[in-house]
Design brief:
Helices cover about 20% and strands about 40% of the residues. The chain has about 130 residues and is of the alpha+beta class. Strand 3 and strand 4 form a beta hairpin. The termini are far apart.
C-alpha cells in the first residue's frame, strides 16, 4: 500500500458555495478569535441567498438548529459557506449550512461551524406563502 493510499482524504464541503468572505480584526473577541455571531451572520446570509433561488422570492429565517462550533475562526481566514437543501415543506425549506476556512487563505479547508437553517417563503406583506 502506498503512502498516498494510507493518507485519509481531506473532508470536503457539502453543497454549493453560497458566500465567501475574509475575517477582519473588527470581528474578534477578547480571546483573539472571531465572534461566533459574526460566523452565524454569514451563514444566515448564505442560507438566505440559496433559499431565495429555491423559493423564487423573498424568505425569512425561521430558525437555526443543530448549531455546532467546531473550530475557531482567526483573523485573516477566508471563510466559505456552503449550503445544501435538505427539506422542503409547504411554505418553508431547510438548508444545511457549513462554514469552512482556509487559514490565511491557503492550505487545506477546515470545517469550523455547521447548522440547519429553516427559511420561510413570504409575500410582500411578510406572510408565509407557498413555495
Amino acid at each position: 500500500m502506498s503512502d498516498a493510499a494510507a493518507q485519509p482524504k481531506p473532508a470536503e464541503p457539502t453543497g454549493e458555495l453560497a458566500i465567501r468572505t475574509i475575517a477582519m480584526p473588527a470581528a474578534i473577541n477578547p480571546s483573539g478569535d472571531v465572534f461566533g455571531g459574526w460566523v452565524v451572520s454569514y451563514m444566515d446570509l448564505a442560507a438566505g441567498i440559496s433559499a431565495v433561488s429555491h423559493a423564487k422570492g423573498r424568505v425569512v429565517t425561521a430558525g437555526i438548529t443543530q448549531l455546532s462550533f467546531l473550530r475557531p475562526v482567526k483573523v485573516g481566514d477566508v471563510m466559505c459557506c456552503y449550503t445544501d437543501l435538505t427539506r422542503t415543506g409547504r411554505t418553508s425549506l431547510t438548508l444545511r449550512v457549513e462554514a469552512w476556512v482556509l487559514r490565511r487563505g491557503e492550505g487545506d479547508r477546515l470545517k469550523v461551524t455547521e447548522a440547519d437553517f429553516t427559511m420561510v417563503a413570504v409575500d410582500a406583506e411578510g406572510r408565509p406563502r407557498p413555495l
